[in-house]
Amino acid sequence: MKTQRFERIELRPTGELYRGDEWQPVAGTAATVTTIGEVRQRSTLTRVVAGGLVAGPLGVIGGALLRKSTDDREHYLFITGSIDWTVPVKQYQLKDAQRFALLVNEASVRHTRLEAEASR
Description:
Elements: E1 4-6, E2 9-11, E3 16-19, E4 22-25, E5 30-36, E6 39-43, H1 45-65, E7 67-71, E8 74-80, E9 85-89, H2 94-118
């Protein structure tokens, strides 16, 4: 396995996670990607009025049914271990963050197993 990166975090084949000058062993760590917030929809007065002007009473109903979406979601990569790290994730990075979290979790299991075998 070669060094994997997401944002400023590196997962090295030697079993360490680095973030700038900080590092921690990957064994015993867990990585998750979490979404906080929601997508909200609401009718707007502008759409109702515009619908009424364009199509009369049916336009008012149609304008009320057309809803404006507000996306208040925030995404984060959490890595918990001997040091806890939180990394904000942009929407376009979501798949890469999920892939990186999977790699960290797989490496954690592998290196934890190796450490257990070495201590026998």
